[in-house]
Amino acid sequence: MLPPRRFSSLLSLEAQSLPNRHDASRSFLDQRRWVFRCGLAMAVAGVWPCLRKAQAATTKGAASGIVIGKLKARTRGTFEELAKQGLPGALIGLQLGDRTAELLALGVADVDSGAPVVPEMTMRLGSIAKLFVGTIALQLSDWGRIGLDDPVSSYRDDVPGGDEISLRMLGNHTSGLFNPLRDPAFRAQVNRTPTRTIPREEVLSVAFNNAPAAPPGEGFHYSNANTVLLADVLERATGEPLMALLRSRLLVPYEAESIVIPQSQALAPPAPRGYRFGAEAGSIEYGGVFFDATDFSASWAGAAGNMNGTLADLLRLGRVLAAGETLSEESRRAQRDFLPVAESFGYGFCLARYGDALGHAGDVPGFSSFLAWHPKSDAVVVVLANLSNLADKSAPATVLGQALLSELETA
Fold this sequence. Notes:
It is built from 11 helices and 12 strands. With 411 residues, it is an alpha+beta fold. It has one domain: DD-peptidase/beta-lactamase superfamily (Beta-lactamase, 3-Layer(aba) Sandwich), CATH 3.40.710.10. The protein has an 8-stranded antiparallel beta sheet with strand order 2-1-12-11-10-9-8-7, with helices on both faces. β11 (367-374) and β12 (379-385) form a beta hairpin. It is globular and about 50 Å long. It starts with a helix and ends with a helix. The relative contact order is 0.15.
């Protein structure tokens, strides 16, 4: 109830219009009617903003629903085109703002049995692993455990040119370190025994024993050795294995525990078969021969690409990894300090830029992957495919992911 003084002031204008003081019953009824109208007006005034907000939310929800519908249609259309080129199956995750995630499972998990892919399946994540290593490195920088401009020689003294190579250079691929897969002997060995688990130090020794691609700091030269060495530095700086760092800082807090650094080439069930177009069956070389590469090891990529996980868990971590949600402003700037590499493509600290979207793509024999956050729409897109490459060498997960980003740009 309003206090008497304020109540009187509200009645004052109405009271001035009363015919006379002696018509008590009429004045009383007029006052009651007026108070009712005031109360109704005040109630409407209070409710109306809520109604406006509810209407705006409904409109926004409807608009988001239309966008999701268009994205699904574009996804199915692109998948059908890729299926004609040999793509067996794909899992696609879409999260628009704070809407419930949309999970699509298209195609088959096994070309022989025709069993369908299902959203719960585990797949190899390839170079999406770089997002994880980069995020941990930037977190440790925020906490003062490492410095991005520290020389690698501060952590191990056997790296050629280690006094001039900074941790920042490892993150943005400007260290000049040789890419191990370009070594003919190492590549031939991977081809001969594609299921063998290759230890980290073997990968690094190949990089260290070859001439660098360029002097430190002189241009972008993509090499998995950068991320493998960065992961090694993180372990030396903390005394913890990389998997323990991932679990304590990302996987357990965000309930994404399907994501693992595998100790063997086996995939946790349920899992699809993985396929590849190669020069011949069993080869990591590109070509037109379609074959099953499920049991190929990704250990030759080390921390740069040897990681498994599920669609739902990647979606949970999409903004954490690509938008830098756990990082300071300074670290986000470092993460997004993009070097121009190609048209509409740049590379920051373990983070790629695809037009306006941020994330990473990857492929290892049998599987391809794509994760991106689109800031304009606050959408996260994740694609996992059980084919590493088409006959034209393109990674189908990246083709699907970029089709979705294109649709988001026009939404």
